[in-house]
Amino acid sequence: MTMTKFSRINKQREEITMRVLEDMEKGGNEWKKPWVEASPLPPHNPVSGTQYSGRNFLYTYVYGMMRGYADPRWATEKQIKEMGWKIPENLQNGRGGINDELGVGIEHWGMYAYIPRVKKDGTP
Predict the structure, then answer these.
(1) Tell me: the pLDDT tens digits for 38-91?
(2) Distance CA 44, CA 65 (A)
(3) Residue 40 maps to a domain
(4) Residue 55's domain spans which residues?
(5) How much is the pTM?
(6) Which residues of 41-59 are buried (b: 16+ CB within 10 A; e: fewer)?
(7) In a domain, 27, yes or no
């Protein structure tokens, strides 16, 4: 069954939430955010220069931990090909997560001003 973009995002949110809750339960009162000490560099995209924040930081960091990634760099498959890079062989078969993907979905949100249309007589 093909997942819609919205259902993929929800599935990813559920996976991340469950992982964080499991880690918190294992750590009890002593639980600490594991991403504070794990890498000197935050998750980022070296092509676009984007340094992930908010939930995208959490997604990339937790999925990276779950899959054993030691590298905080994230890029699209298209960017990897365009830059002439290769995905390390040890990761090519290590797919996991939603639909056995190697990557993680990044959410893009924006704020837009709502300007209602007004008729010539001034009514909405």
Answers:
(1) 567 889 999 999 999 888 888 888 888 877 778 889 888 889 889 999 877 666
(2) 15
(3) yes
(4) 5-100
(5) 0.59
(6) eebbbebeeeebeeebebb
(7) yes
